[in-house]
Amino acid sequence: xxxxxxxxxxxxxxxxxxxxxxxxxxxxxxILRAGNVEDGLASMDYLFEEKAKGITIEAGISxxxxxxxxxxxxxxPGHIDFGMEADTALEAADGAVLVVSAVDGIQPQTFAAWExxxxxxxxxxxxxxxTDLPESRLEESFLEIEEQLGLCPVLLSWPVKxxxxxxxxxxxxxxxxxxxxxxxxxxxxxxxxxxxxxxxxFEAASLADDKLLEKMLAGKxxxxxxxxxxxxxLFCKGTHILCYAGSAKKNIGVRSLLNGLSFFVKxxxxxxxxxxQVIRYxxxxxxxxxxxxxxxxxxxxxxxxxxxKFYRIHAQNLAEVSEIFCGDIYAVKGMxxxxxxxxxxxxxxxxxxxxxxxxxxxxxxxxxxxxxDNSVKISENPSDGSWxxxxxxxxxxxxxxxxxxxxxxxxxxxxxxxVEFKEVLSKDLxxxxxxxxxxxxxxxxxxxxxxxxxxxxxxxxxxxxxxxxDSALNEFCEAGVLGKGxxxxxxxxxxxxxxxxxxxxxxxxxxxxxxxxxxxxPSCVEIREPWVDLSVQCPSAFAGMVANDLLSRGAxxxxxxxxxxxHRFFANAPLxxxxxxxxxxxxxxxxxGNFYITAKELL
Length: 603
Prior knowledge:
- The protein is α+β, with helices and mostly antiparallel strands.
- It contains 15 helices and 34 strands.
- Helices cover 30% and strands 33% of the residues.
- The strands form eight sheets. Strands 2-3-1-4-5-11-6 form a seven-stranded mixed sheet, with helices on both faces. The protein has a five-stranded antiparallel sheet with strand order 12-13-18-15-16.
């Protein structure tokens, strides 16, 4: 088996991330035709909603071979509502390509993607896209990398409008051959500019390689192999960031980027006794729910765990395999479902059946969506048979409703997205006692609570009893006290638990739940609204209108900056005023505004 590398493609929405993914697959020979997003023909945007809206919703996975390396490519969403898809993509990636529009430069979600990469310590290469457009400002975008990401950029490809690109590393010029793919041609234009960038690359590489520095100080011209070795060492230091430039749509600079990935992104070392790691779950047409799985071992089919089937993934298509390899990514059928990580939905929406006879099918469909998307939570409202959907944003709600109709054939009535307020324990509470008897089981329990998180239970209790108590208290917190939202900032302390007669877990759970209701009264709870950190970017001409709109929403503008062409605001804002902000901001700025939010502590 060849070396295996996993690469994620990240970007702000509309920076050209999926278009770049298509050109990479075409350049490598994986697909016969590179589709355009605007035509709805991109193979990596396979969902109906992705083709209709022109955005990535699910992280598309494919594979290809390049320079004798097996690559898994993960095209992660750029839209804020589907941020969890980007997070899970990075869990499996050895490195990432951060696509930056040379027209728009660093945008809010570009910076958010960069912060995720830093927190996970994932190596990154930047690709400046859309350099073929008249409004492209590559040099300004290049400087923004240093100003906003805090790293020194090193440019390794220099595009010459629609003619091709200088590959700085090799000193060769690449332009399209008869097949439309990039190839080496003799070219004289702008060679001096290329030599300038090549000299800058040597100087940057010499900071990490003493032998290269000595050779340059002696006035000698280093070899390309020496430059490559020096850049590899520089890439690992984390003080500089390697950058490529071109046009994904016109397939300019893609070959240089692929070679750069081969040179600089190395596979992560995997040392584990486990078979592998489940990254997330997904539903595939004709196969159903599967786990997306990164293998930690090499196995032949006869050694596969019982009842498991492994599949190679290309977009929505699966092909069963007879062996798996360490570090590779597969879809797995038959793996038990388990919750992956923690993700806090920001908004909620009420959903109900149009026909009572459809209730069971809608319930099963909603549970399937919840199992395959950790950023979605479903809770039933027993009083009227409706459900409450919890998700990240309005666009995600639209996708869920569309999927219910298209994939599960469910007709439902939905309300408007709203903010889920939080109930917060405001003070420590002394213990209360509760007694419960059902049949031969008698339970006496004493429970207190303090501000904090978690549950404190006796170590000597059996695991089954602990789970019953834990379930009761989690159920109580989920329901809340005032009916405004779930209860948080509470740590329960079990002071006493005495059980006589037959051990009945249902009775123990009821006694605990009733004790919690006695303990936490409405007067002990405060209602708090979630606020978010908000970063808004817009053309400078609309800065005044955007600022006034933010203030009208009760936002607190913390800082702002601009360069005469675009302006950015950094603010704190109540989430309840931002439920449809995407559409409203685009209207205010005539399509030129965008934003990014991150949840913060409740205020």
